[in-house]
Amino acid sequence: MKRTFIADIAHDALPYLDPLNTYEHAQLNELPDPAAVSWWPQTAGWWWLLLGVAVCLFLVLRKCWIIHQKNTWRRDALIELKAMEKAGDLTQLNSLIKRIGLLFFPRRKIAGSNHTDVFHRLGLTLTQDQSLLITSSTYKCNKPINPYDDLFVIIERWIKELPNA
User: Fold this and answer.
1) How far apart are the first and last CA of the chain?
2) Is residue 82 part of a domain?
3) Range of the domain at 143
4) Which of 33, 68, 76, 94 gets the highest tally of CB atoms within 10 A of its CB?
5) What is the pLDDT along the chain (165 residues), one digit of tens a residue?
């Protein structure tokens, strides 16, 4: 009597499990690779988010540009003040202070006031000697500035602390 093994039954019933069955094995193809995942957003919500971020970025940059433009007068005044300090020239200092005052107040309030009133209205606190030095230097020849006099430092700090015009 012939003995049958379970392996023989399994081999007859399921020939495709035979590792040596090369015919079926040769017909197998490799699975294709999936399509590459795109970096672009697939849904409309991402496009709206991207548009919102772009608009916000535009508004922030525009606000920065406006602030930069509003501070142009301050940068120009500081450059002019540094040039006066370097040259030791006080003749244009009164004119510079009045031009800055015209940015904040109407012409009639600045042009029709005396110098100490203009300085007070603009919030520029000077001693009486410094105020007299500024106002009289417009009509007199240049006199050397005392190196210990911190007039230019006071005016520079005042210009930097003024609000945007």
Assistant:
1) 114
2) yes
3) 72-161
4) 94
5) 555 555 555 555 555 555 555 666 667 778 888 888 877 767 888 889 999 999 999 999 999 999 999 889 889 999 998 888 888 777 788 788 888 888 877 777 777 666 667 777 777 877 777 777 777 766 665 555 554 467 888 888 888 888 876
